[in-house]
Design brief:
Layout lengths: L5 H8 L2 E3 L7 E3 L9 E4 L12 H6 L4 E4 L1 H6 L5 E3 L3 H15 L3 E6 L4 H12 L5 E3 L9 H7 L7 E5 L8 H8 L3 E4 L13 H8 L1 H4 L6 E5 L5 H6 L4 E6 L6 E5 L6 E6 L5 E5 L5 H16 L4 H9 L9 E5 L2 E6 L5 H13 L6 E5 L9 H15 L2 E6 H13 L7 E4 L2 H11 L5 E5 L7 H7 L5
Parallel strand pairs: 2-3, 3-4, 4-5, 6-8, 6-9, 7-8, 9-10, 10-11, 11-12, 16-20, 17-18, 17-20, 18-19
Antiparallel strand pairs: 1-5, 12-13, 13-14, 15-16
Helix pairs in contact: 1-4, 4-6, 5-11, 13-14, 14-15, 16-17
Length: 458
């Protein structure tokens, strides 16, 4: 069954069909993940030109390909949608399709926690009705159109993560998505390579709120450092959450129970007990934003309780494994100063009968502030006491330098060039009852420490 009319695709893109296919059931920009019936977009990348793969895409079952005029002229017999620029056509087609959808769209942005909040919110809204969501971290000018085009026409909700690392990137994404609900998670010092202050980052994140309609809904953490700036940018109803102050949804963390908390809803006459499936106060903050959003869309407390307890983190976020009786937490999907601190605090709250090891790699995109921020993280680690620190890579060495400067004993610090060396140290020294945290930015690929550690000797 065709999902997209070929006439609509031509109209939305401003293109012309050369041998229109009978049916188009999906879209793709990658021949490795292409499904039969997809429309392949031949995008020009920094490393490769999608036009070089268009004929292969058709051979693999693509219904057609979106190409420029030069390619079409050279291939007159192929089913092609001919446009001036395929990347522009992708966004135009997504915008056209968005106009046909009746779902309530939720935009989630922030420096830390946006993927977790996106996934939690989608899980909770799915208890109310069919819910679409961003796939993985498809949150940029290519990922958002692809995610939108994957939404089923009967979806009641769509929860989409909007990411950025340069000024001015969020406004076009907001214009494409046209959300009616906006959530901003914690704002902190990330992307310093392209922003000169945290306030500048907060101003950019506020675009998600400025784009909301007057009858829309904004959901904000009242405890956040930039709450006043963000709330001032909100043109519609505002719902607030907090762990410590008056708000529409106030949570109290039960310290004796890992991930347990209670929520009081403004105007309600009960306090509801909930259980987060992942530990840490920062994840309860994330869950509270999702709870507030879901309650605004008529989710019941019973369904919220069940969905939160069953939530499974995606990617390399707080994945728990064991090796020879030691517990290993892999939280290596992303890292920034606030997320590093939150992960370390949560790790220290975990039960462990043996030694605690923190294996840390670099935090990327911090620009000129990188060395200072890595040194500060080292000071934070030194204050934890009774930990052994293993750092990986050049940026990780700055963490080690800061830890040593702050008083962590030299015999508790190991500086490694790569993941293999870190794994070798753990292999030699880990004992049953020990606990290990692996944390770094995604580009550091710190999960390789676990992969190498658990490899069977040849």
């Amino acid at each position: 069954m065709s999902k997209f009319s070929t006439d609509d695709l031509a109209r939305w893109s401003g293109g012309t069909w050369q041998h229109a296919p009978a049916a188009v059931t999906g879209v793709s920009i990658n021949t490795k993940t292409l499904q039969s019936g997809d429309l392949f977009f031949a995008l020009q990348g920094t490393q490769a030109d999608g036009h070089d793969f268009a004929t292969d895409a058709l051979a693999r079952g693509a219904a057609g390909a979106v190409v420029n005029r030069k390619f079409a002229k050279k291939n007159p017999t192929l089913p092609l949608l001919v446009v001036a620029e395929p990347a522009v056509a992708l966004r135009a087609i997504a915008a056209g399709y968005r106009e046909t959808l009746k779902a309530t769209f939720v935009a989630v942005t922030g420096s830390v926690g946006k993927t977790t909040v996106k996934e939690m919110t989608a899980d909770l809204l799915a208890t109310v009705g069919p819910t679409a969501r961003t796939h993985g971290n498809f949150n940029n000018d290519l990922g958002l159109p692809l995610s939108l085009l994957a939404v089923d026409p009967d979806a009641r909700f769509g929860v989409f993560e909007l990411g950025m690392n340069h000024p001015g990137e969020l406004a076009p994404l907001c214009k494409l998505l046209r959300p009616t609900v906006g959530i901003v998670t914690m704002v902190g010092p990330v992307h310093f390579e392209f922003f000169d202050s945290v306030q500048a980052i907060a101003e950019e994140k506020a675009e998600v709120l400025r784009c909301l309609p007057k009858d829309g809904l904004a959901v904000l953490d009242a405890d956040g450092d930039w709450f006043d700036l963000l709330s001032a940018a909100t043109p519609c109803r505002l719902v607030t959450t907090s762990l410590r102050a008056a708000a529409d949804y106030v949570a109290h963390i039960a310290p004796e129970l890992n991930g347990a908390f209670t929520v009081t809803e403004r105007g309600g006459d009960e306090t509801v007990a909930l259980q987060n499936s992942i530990p840490g106060a920062h994840n309860i903050r994330n869950a509270l934003l999702a709870v507030a959003t879901a309650r605004a869309q008529s989710a019941t407390w019973e369904n919220i309780r069940t969905a939160l307890a069953g939530y499974e983190p995606v990617g390399l976020r707080w994945q728990r494994s064991e090796w020879h009786g030691a517990t290993i937490i892999t939280d290596a999907y992303n890292a920034s100063p606030p997320s590093m601190a939150a992960a370390l605090r949560t790790f220290m709250e975990m039960p462990a009968t043996g030694q605690r090891w923190v294996v840390l790699g670099g935090m990327l995109e911090l620009g000129d502030a990188a060395e200072d921020l890595h040194n500060e993280l080292g000071h934070f680690v030194a204050d934890l006491k009774e930990v052994c620190l293993i750092t990986v890579g050049e940026l990780g060495a700055w963490i080690a330098a800061g830890a040593f400067e702050a008083g962590l004993a030299a015999d508790r610090i190991e500086i490694c060039d790569g993941c293999g060396a870190a794994a070798a140290i753990l292999r030699a020294r880990l004992q049953a009852g020990d606990a290990v945290l692996l944390k770094a930015s995604r580009g550091e690929k710190l999960e390789r420490v676990l992969e190498t550690l658990t490899e069977e000797p040849s």
